[in-house]
Amino acid sequence: MSDLTEQTRDVAKRWFAALTSGEFPAALGLLADDVEWINYRPVPGYNDDMKWIGTLHSSAEVADSVGVFAGQCEVISEELLDLVVEGEKAAGIIHEISRVKETGIDFEIIFTHWLTVRNGRIVRWESHTDPSQIIRAIRGGAVAA
């Protein structure tokens, strides 16, 4: 295995360990100052209720976004199911159960984090999941027709 892959694996393991243990400051410390952060893609009229999503371009914006998520949702559990690393790229599969604070409704998702790591920092992060369970929980169990 190449040194680059090993360096990426080290950063990815630290990222996922911090996330799954709720150590958000440690996780945020692994981001490059000018990280490109793509947290879902907003679709007007569909996922507008997810106030923390969108594309951000700095670790400060990401910290603010994490604060918005934490204000709206409480993570009950997160577990890393799989991790694949090659060169500067890593993909982690996460199982998450969270609760929407306003409605008290839980949602359960499987989502992928795609990471690009350079010089020991995450320079690009992108997530993918089906957000329908999140939207249902935010809307109190109702889903728009």
From TrEMBL:
Domain of life: Bacteria
Coiled coil, from the record: none
Pfam families in the record: SnoaL_2 (PF12680)
The SnoaL-like domain, residue ranges: 13-125
Protein name: SnoaL-like domain-containing protein
Organism: Streptomyces longisporus
